[in-house]
Design goal:
By secondary structure, the protein is mainly alpha-helical. It has one domain (5-57, 68-106): UDP-galactose 4-epimerase, domain 1 (Alpha-Beta Complex). 38% of the residues lie in helices and 0% in strands.
């Protein structure tokens, strides 16, 4: 199976690659992200040209458990893995869309396919 964009992107060093000592990283949970907040509306607007989707977002009433604000704290990954984002959110999103499209062309049935026929 092809690597996902997250596996292919220039991301953090790993213990296997000689990055962080395994003992220093063992048992910890790390956020690997850009370190900046991106709203769903911003993400939607960025995805529209990448997917040729011309529709509008469908807003609904707030639901219990909805997360209003989210920002992945990457400080532990920076501290223990020496992580620094090398790809910004926009480029990562573009790479992700391209990866899904490549899987569709390759006919990998295990990979969900981006549907862009709706407009």
């Amino acid at each position: 199976m092809a690597k996902t964009p997250e596996q292919e992107m220039d991301g953090p060093s790993t213990p296997e690659a000689g990055g962080a000592p395994a003992a220093q990283a063992a048992g910890k949970v790390f956020n690997v992200a850009t370190g900046r907040r991106v709203t769903l509306n911003e993400t939607f607007k960025l995805l529209q040209p990448l997917t040729s989707y011309s529709g509008s977002p469908a807003y609904a009433a707030e639901r219990g458990g909805d997360i209003k604000h989210s920002l992945a704290d990457i400080s532990l990954a920076e501290q223990h893995l020496g992580y620094t984002p090398k790809v910004n959110f926009e480029e990562g999103l573009q790479r992700t869309v391209e990866w899904y499209r490549s899987q569709e062309k390759a006919g990998d049935a295990r990979t969900p396919v981006l549907k862009t026929s709706r407009s």
